[in-house]
């Protein structure tokens, strides 16, 4: 069994010097993770019909995104168990290597003009495998960062880690916008779309080097007793109540994500008043603002409590999120940018405390498994939106259907938080 051996004595300065690499790696790791997750949605948005084929480009990119998200629960279960039993740092390195390789392979998929229908299925297959490794990365890396962090800084670190998601989205949007405007739509469709995937692979290889050179498991965690079957313990054993409570809360958050990012992006792309390059610019502005609000959410949760934060946020979002979405689809110009930004702020900002909250809800022996499975298993129903959302939209209207889903997401967030206790946010992780 692999483990890091702690020294008999350590000064506070020594602990700080060893905790900083793990904290930095947690921040950078979630940036790389989120960059990879949303690459197809944003980078392919301007040219999906040319790269994947003219048949329902929005549905095709949605299918690729779903494949990524479906791989994540599998990866969380596999790598969470490995991380709890054999160490979080080693597990993280394996997962990052897989992310780097699969992302690089996507950059060499032939376009639809050469590969035909197999182009789409090559994307789907590689994104599923990549999603499995992505599920392993945050399952090990974020609990590791939290275990190295002092209790009073957990909310701030959680907000910073979760803010990497909108920052990653903003980076993809900026890179896509730059490439489309520099190369032109035809050149970008022919080969330019591959560059963001190459960038993603390079970042993952760089992160792998950083973990190998600088990061180790927290001493208290490395010396803690190991559970023989951590995944079984959280699914049907003594930690099942924590898991299913987290599942309800995270399902609400994932519904927010699907409606506020891929669904909104697709609907904007199809809107007559919005050009292809404008979508990337609008999402760039909105995600930059939501990064700040997500970080702020983590800090606020440290002051008022994670449970109280989620309940208050969900109650506000119940009204604000549907109204903001309806405003966004009926606006143009500066009003459109403002409305899309508001959608991001009143939905995905709630992720700010999640890194700390999930780490606090599970003890050391099952922390990676509980964090990863709770975070990822809740993706399943929201990720199937390409299959259930169109029917709902056909029944009650495209915008009203999304507004209804946002209301349900708000209610699930409130219910999930209310079902659980307030974690001991000012105490060391158990």
Automatic annotation (TrEMBL):
Q: Which GO terms describe its molecular function?
A: transmembrane transporter activity
Query: Subcellular location, in the record's words?
Result: Cell membrane
Residue spans crossing the bilayer: 25-51, 63-82, 94-111, 117-136, 157-179, 191-211, 246-267, 279-297, 309-330, 336-359, 371-389, 395-419
Question: Which UniProt key words apply to this protein?
Answer: Cell membrane, Membrane, Transmembrane, Transmembrane helix, Transport
Entry membrane topology: Multi-pass membrane protein
- Known Pfam families for this protein? MFS_1
Q: InterPro entries, per this entry?
A: MFS (IPR011701), MFS_dom (IPR020846), MFS_trans_sf (IPR036259)
- What domain of life? Bacteria
Q: Please report the name of this protein according to its UniProt entry.
A: MFS transporter
Give the lineage: Bacteria, Bacillati, Actinomycetota, Actinomycetes, Micrococcales
């Amino acid at each position: 069994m692999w483990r890091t051996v702690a020294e008999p004595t350590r000064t506070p300065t020594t602990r700080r010097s060893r905790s900083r690499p793990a904290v930095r790696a947690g921040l950078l790791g979630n940036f790389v993770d989120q960059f990879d997750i949303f690459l197809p949605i944003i980078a392919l948005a301007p040219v999906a019909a040319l790269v994947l084929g003219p048949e329902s480009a929005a549905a095709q990119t949605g299918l690729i995104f779903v494949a990524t998200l479906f791989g994540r629960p599998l990866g969380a279960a596999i790598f969470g168990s490995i991380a709890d039993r054999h160490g979080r740092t080693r597990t993280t390195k394996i997962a990052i290597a897989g992310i780097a390789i699969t992302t690089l392979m996507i950059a060499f998929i032939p376009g639809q003009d050469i590969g035909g229908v197999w182009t789409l299925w090559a994307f789907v297959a590689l994104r599923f495998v990549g999603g499995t490794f992505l599920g392993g990365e945050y399952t090990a890396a974020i609990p590791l960062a939290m275990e190295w962090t002092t209790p009073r800084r957990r909310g701030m670190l959680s907000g910073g880690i979760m803010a990497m998601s909108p920052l990653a989205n903003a980076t993809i949007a900026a890179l896509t916008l730059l490439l489309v405007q520099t190369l032109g739509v035809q050149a970008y469709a022919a080969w330019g779309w591959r560059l963001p995937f190459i960038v993603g692979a390079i970042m993952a290889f760089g992160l792998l080097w950083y973990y190998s050179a600088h990061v180790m498991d927290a001493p208290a965690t490395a010396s803690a007793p190991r559970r023989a079957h951590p995944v079984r313990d959280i699914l049907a054993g003594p930690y099942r109540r924590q898991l299913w409570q987290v599942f309800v809360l995270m399902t609400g958050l994932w519904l927010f994500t699907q409606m506020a990012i891929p669904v909104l992006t697709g609907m904007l792309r199809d809107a007559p008043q919005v050009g292809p390059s404008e979508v990337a610019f609008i999402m760039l502005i909105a995600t930059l603002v939501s990064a700040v609000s997500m970080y702020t959410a983590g800090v606020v949760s440290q002051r008022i409590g994670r449970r109280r934060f989620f309940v208050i946020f969900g109650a506000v979002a119940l009204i604000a999120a549907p109204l903001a979405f309806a405003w966004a689809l009926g606006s143009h110009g500066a009003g459109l940018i403002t409305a899309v930004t508001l959608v991001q702020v009143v939905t995905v900002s709630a992720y700010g405390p999640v890194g700390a909250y999930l780490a606090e809800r599970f003890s050391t022996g099952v922390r990676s498994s509980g964090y990863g499975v709770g975070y990822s298993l809740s993706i399943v129903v929201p990720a199937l939106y390409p299959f259930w959302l169109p029917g709902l939209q056909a029944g009650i209207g495209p915008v009203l259907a999304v507004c209804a889903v946002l209301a349900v997401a708000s209610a699930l967030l409130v219910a999930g938080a209310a079902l659980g206790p307030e974690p001991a946010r000012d105490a060391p992780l158990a």
